[in-house]
Every structure is written in structure tokens, then in C-alpha cells.
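Dear all,

This email documents one entry for the complex benchmark we are building for the journal club exercise. For each entry we list the sequence lines for every component of the assembly. Then comes the predicted three-dimensional structure of the complex as a C-alpha cell string, followed by one or two observations. Please use this as the template for your own entries, and keep the labels exactly as they appear.
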Amino acid sequence: MTATATPPQTRSAEPPAEPPRQRRRLTAYWLLLPGALWLVVFFVIPFYSLVATSLYDPDGSVLHGYDMTWAFSNFWHALHDYWGPLLRSLWYGAVATAICLVLGYVLAYAIAFKAGRWKNLMLVLVIAPFFTSFLVRTLSWKLLLRDDGFIVNSLQFLHLIGPEGRLLATPVAVIAGLVYNFLPFMVLPLFASVDKIDHRLIEASGDLYASPVVGFFKVTWPLSLPGVVSGTLLTFIPAVGDYINAQLLGSPKQRMIGNVIQDLFTNANNYPAAGALSVILMALILVMVLLYVRRAGTEELL
Amino acid sequence: MSQVAERTAQPAQTGDGGSFDGLRLRSLTKQFAAFTAVDSLDLDVPSGSFFALLGPSGCGKTTTLRMVAGLETPTSGSMHLGDRDITWDKPYRRPVNTVFQNYALFPHLDIFENVAFGLRRRRGKDVEKQVGDMLELVELDSQARKKPAQLSGGQQQRVALARALINRPEVLLLDEPLGALDLKLRRSMQIEIKRIQTEVGLTFVHVTHDQEEAMTMADTIAVMNAGVIEQMGAPGDLYENPRTTFVANFLGQSNLIEGTLKGRDGDQVVVDMQGTLATVPASRAHVDVVDNNPVWLGIRPEKVLLGESGDAIDAPGNSIPGGVVTDVSFVGVSTQYLVRMPWGQELQVFEQNTGRRRLFRQGEPVEVSWRPEYAFLLDHSQDASAGVEDDAS
Amino acid sequence: MRWLQRNAVLLGGLLVIVYMFVPIFVVVLMSFNKPRSKLIYRFDGFTLQNWLHPCQSPSMCSAVGRSIEIGLLATIVATVLGTLMAFALVRHQFRGRTVSNVLIFLPMASPEIVMGSSLLALFVAGGFGGRLGFWTILIAHIMFCLSFVVVTVRARLAGLDTNLEQAAMDLYATEAQTFWRVTFPLVFPGILGAALLSFSLSFDDFIITNLNAGNTTTFPMYVWGVAQRGVPMQVNVVGTVMFVISVAIVVGAELNRRRQERALA
């Protein structure tokens, strides 16, 4: 996550390095093995367990164990019971991502092009708040947005919300929390992309009769697309799955899919339904990501 | 530069059996997948010489250098240093050091430690003193505790040189060592490196694509093209008597005129050059002398004289009438003309601005001539535009 | 007015930064708060009590200790394994590169709730459902830190000029000497950065941890628990300390970099 300066690559007119020898190839596998094994055992195989869990007999329980009954109906039931929180999560995630994109772009652009010698300091300032616990920060927002707090009173004074209006336990608070918590995931990739843009290109567009606004949309924006794509993905994915903001800043009316899954696992002990919902969420996100990446035409995500 | 063909002594001619204390490459080959970078190369570099491998980018010169350094494994062939076979030695086992193209100075070590690196690895004694002396030689003794990034390009270049030299390698390899410097600095570094080489007396093998650099510094040049050595010799020999169209064009510039062999006249070869008979000394005819064979007759632009049409030529030579000046470029020390010949070809002619002759104007009819001993004959099967540089570099 | 127009973007950026710091300000302020009631979370008066007695709630301090313990262990394992993987990916050609890259990328692109529930499903299916706790948390943390380590170290390593290693070999350094004297010192800042990132990810994780923790309580889980009942102000002390330490590290690194840069001039 730290921006490291890359020393200039040596340019050699000669053909690239020799093809690898057998011994070196084996070394690569030995280096890769422990980490890859860890990821396979504790990331890939769990997915398989999750899918299996989602197909268990819904009448079982943690105490008595579950039977594998290929209960595809779990999916239908899960969708039927929880389509509300599912759609709400996608909606909140999308709105939060859009707001993050606007705020993040302004910030990334300011750091890259306007900060001058304060560039690194500003970058540090962006990251610094996020080393304080996620939960403690969210509690602070709860304090800031409380019913007789400064922000609510000001909004009431300006008649932006009614005298009985509040922020806590509304979608506004939940989305604001999501925006706040995932903003750095947007800013850092955006900054990496915008910072790479040669500022002379923007000057050249001005020289070629583009107004600053046109210049932005014809030059800066297209060149920063890789950052936009990875930033929106890195914001959207965790935001959709998050339930901390909904729990601390919202009310049961703002329940997101994460709250439901968490609840089904830990309180209701309904593993099959929870598993089915997780699988649905993952599948939805994968499909959306693939469509999005294809449309944006960026394949350099890895 | 007129000691034409006096030094035919080619260092490569030492036989395989005799003892030789330089660097010797035999049938050295390097293939990358389907591409042959170096093709069965034979080369002898006598110890103590300043040797240049000259060629365009992609000709295999850097690959050759990297094989000698041990950074690239040959596909086949052998490398010897004196009697020692170093073909399969690891880079850290051979008494060879390299000055890398972009210097490759260790950014986390200061100048002193950079220079001391090789000595420390070999547990050398008196590291302090040796490094001090070496830094003095390259005039950087006051910069010892700085980091490489704090030095200028020219200073970094000297650190790279010192770091390699201090190990007193049997062969010092320089991979385009001056490529990253600006023109003025490059000129002074050329002289500097040459001075150091004379001072320490080590064998230097210098890879470059810059023909002026090679001619300034080296006492022997091997011109490389497409993985093979086209010609090797002293700079003057290569320039005055090139054996291939590639060398004729890559080292300086040449006019190559199509002609037909018309037998011998004593030690002269007679060529029918577009209807005019011209002669070339047999020692400069790098072709099989068979009547009616087509050849390229080569002549350097500065060896061509221009005369008023119908004037007597001031020296006996080959003379062709009917030229017309099509372009005149005044470049200060000389004037460069393009002259269209009756057969349509445009010849380049460089004339020194001595002030004794008047300038010709565009469109003026002229006669061109040259002394036979400056011309050379090349095989017609070779590409007349081989080695022509697309851009001045 | 023209000044405003010219600096609008910069002002906007500064406003966003102020926005990012507002809750931090609250955290620091509340760490000096003297609450009148446990149930109302607001600033009532100034006191140093929270700082002088950070462990008034012993369960909080033990949760912090556990988080540090897990964070350190997870960081060490993830940094070692991830660095090895980064070396394999940058320095070696081998079959299965693309698969490896996808394997490393996916954990970063999966929602935590899905990763957490998958792991829980595995543990339960494997008969560890009743033994969730320290070790299952540690396993999970190593898993999600690993990818971030690989990405960070890989970036550093990819920016390293291979000529430097060749130069070392040319100067009589064996493979091992080359690694320890040239490669490692140059990659080390990347490894250190990866380790810091790992620690903060692990220390701060709630969603995955909460699903796989059993009865074990980490600091974020403690905060989650007290958020429903009444938050002891010492939580803000921990938050402030975390902020100060991390800022000190980042600012220290930046000052060090500037000092070196100034020496250049």
C-alpha cells in the first residue's frame, strides 16, 4: 500500500534472459508451496465447505449434525426470506462506492497534481486515520451523528431535516459510515493511477483548445481508468459484505446481508441458510465484477 | 590515417596450438529459443589490449560480453583465459569484472563500500588503502562516504569503473559504459578511460554501438553484425580498407557503385563502372577476380574530388564526367555535396573548406575523380545498404 | 475569487482530509472524557483517569493483549510465507503462474463475510466447531494477510534492478552472499511495510474473527460487545495510542526519506 519509487529499468537491446533451467523451476515451487498450500487449505477448500454447507438438510442443527441432502431449495428459501437485505446491501454498496469515487477522485487529484512538495505528507494523512480501530472510529461517528448532537442540530436549524428528524438509524448514517470506512481503498489506487499521468498531457489538451472540463473528461479520466476500476472494486466488495456500519449506525430497518449471515451463523445456528446466502452473495459479486471489468476493458487487475 | 593496409597484423591470427595469454573465444554460440544471438564466434583478445566490440543494437555484442562475464551461459563453444577454461565457471569464480551499462551501483552502500565490495568478498588485505588509492585514481577520494544517488552521472561512471578495476581482473568488460552521459562528458570520459587503461595495463573489452567512441579508444576493433564478426583490425585499417558493405557503411560512410570486373592489369584490378573504366589495387579487391563478375566499387566521400567539367584533374586517378551537383550543405569544416551521376546514382562528396577551392553551386555540372588506391571492391552479393544507420547516434 | 477557482481542487482535497480526521479528533477527545453516565456517550468533562488507569476494565486489556499476540504471530508467518511467494513470482518462470496470481488476488477481492463463513463451514465440517478460538483466529488472519504481503513485497522486488545482483556476482559474491548483501537489504523496506500492513489488518479485523473466534475475545470483538452496553472511555485510549504509534512510524519513515533526499542537494 505504500507507493514505492521504481528505479529506472535497464533497457537492453539484447534479447531477454535465458530460459530457466530445471533446478530453478523446482526452487520456484518450493518457495511457492507453503503459502499456496495455506491459501488452498484455508481459502479454496473452505469455499467448497461453504457450498456443501449450503446444500445440507435445513432440518439439522449444529448439535446433531447436518446431512448432505443436496437441498437446493435452501437457495430458494434464502432468496425468498432475505431478498430485502440482499438488494439493500447492493444498493448501499453502490451508493457508497459512487460517493467514495467523487471524494476519492478530488483527493487523489489534489495530492497528485496540486500538493507539490506536500504530496507525501498528504498521502500519509490519508492513511493515518485508518490505523485506528475500525470499530472505535465507527463509534465516533455514532457520537457525532447522535440525535441532539452538533450535526443534527445544525441540519435542523438549516431546515434540511425536520425538527424530529435524525441521522442515526437512517440509511444516510449507514451509507456515510460505509463511505468513511472504505474511502482509503478508493483513494490509494486512484492516486497510483492519477499520479502516473504525465501532467504535460493535460497541458497539451489545453493547448489544443480543450477547456479544463473537456480536458479532464477526454484526457485525465480515461488515463486514470485502471485506478477507477480497481478502486471501485476494492470499495464496493467490502462495503456490500459489511455489517458493522449497519449495526452500529443503523437500525433493523437498515439490516444488510452481512448482518443476516452473521445472525444465522452465530445466533440462529441455521448453517445451511447462512451458507446459501454467502454463496449467493459471492456469486452475485463475481458476476458483477466480471461484467464490470469486461465493460471497463481493464484486464490488468492482477 | 593514411597508413593504408600497412598493419595487416591481425591479432586473431595466433594459432590454436600456441600459448596465448589473453582471452580466447572458440565457436562461441548463444541461442535464445529460435533466435541465434551469437553464432559460432571465434575471437582472440591479446592481454593488455584495449579491444572494442562494435555493432548496432541486437548484433550480439552485449550477449558475447555477458557470456565472458559468466552472466549468460553459452549454448556451445568455449572460453579460455590463458590456459584456463572459464566456459562453465560461475561469474564469481572468474577473474573478469564488468562495468555495467547503467553502472548497477549498489544504492544501499556508500561509494567506499561499493568499491570495496569485490575485495571484501575475496577477503583482500589492506582494503582501506586499496580503496583509497583507487578513489584517488578516479578523482573521487572526497566522495567516499556519499551514496551513489548523490553523485552525478559522470561520477557514478567513475565509481563503476573503480569498483571493477580495483579487483585487477585479467579482463575488464565495459558494456556501453558511456551511453548514459551527454556528448561533452562522453568525450572527456573516453580520454579518461583510455588514460586509466594505459596506466593499469589491464585488458579492456569495450562494447559499444558508437563508432567514433570505438575508434577513439580502442587499439583493435571487431565489427559485429547479426551474431558474427564482420571484420577485425586497427581502427585505421577498418576505416580505410573495409571488407564488407556492412563495415563500409557502419564505420563512416561510403559510396558503393555497381560495376563489372574486366580482368587484371599488373597488380591493379580493372572495373567497368557504368561505362567508365576504373582501377583498384588487387590488395583492396575483396572479391574473386573473375571477368564479368558484378562488384561494388566503394569510395569514401572525403576521398572524392570535384572538378569543373572539362578541367584537368590535379592527380592521376579514376575520373568520371557528367555529374551534376544536386545538393550543397555547408557544415563549417567541410562542405558536403550530393552529385547526381549520369546513371542516376547520387554520390556523396565531402570537401574540406581549405579556402583554396571555390564552392560549387546547386545545378552546376562537375567531374568527379579519386585516386585508385583509395577505392575498394566488395562482393556484389552483399546488400549495398547494410549497416547504414537510420539515425545518427 | 480567482485564487479560489485555481485552488478549488486542493481545497476540496483538504476538506476530504479534514473529514477523515473528524472521528480521530473525537477518539482523542473522548479518551480524556469523564462520563457522567455509562449509557450516554458524549463529552462531559476532562480527566486523565482513563490514561492513568487504562486497565480499569481488565477484560479490555486482556483483549488488547490477545489481539497483539495474534497480530504478531500472524504477521510473522504471513510475512515469511508471502515473501517467499513474492520471490517465486518475480524471480522465477514456472508453469502455474496465472493460477498462483489468481489464488493470491481472490482473497483480496472476496467479502470478509464470505471468507469468514467459508472458514467457519470448514472448521465445523472438520469437527473443530467446538474448538474455535485462538488458533482458528490465527489461521484466518494469516490467510487474509498473506495476499497483502505478496502484493507489497512483489511490487518492491519487481522494481529491483536485476543488474545489481549480477554486478554482485561479477564482484565475487556467491549466490548466498549476493542474496544477503544485495537483494535482501534492498527488498527489506518492502518486507517491513508488508509486516506493518499485516499487523494492522490483523489487529483491526472483526468480521472474519467474530465468525471463527468461539469464546475468545480480541480487541475489536470487545468493542463490539461493549458498543451495545456502554463503552468504557479506555477504548478511546487504545484508539489514540494506535493512531499515535502508526503516525509516528509513517512520519518517521517519511522524515528519514526526506533527510536522505536533502543530503542529495
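Observations: Chain B has two domains: 11-95+169-245, 253-379. Residues 11-95+169-245 of chain B form a domain with the Rossmann fold fold (CATH 3.40.50.300).
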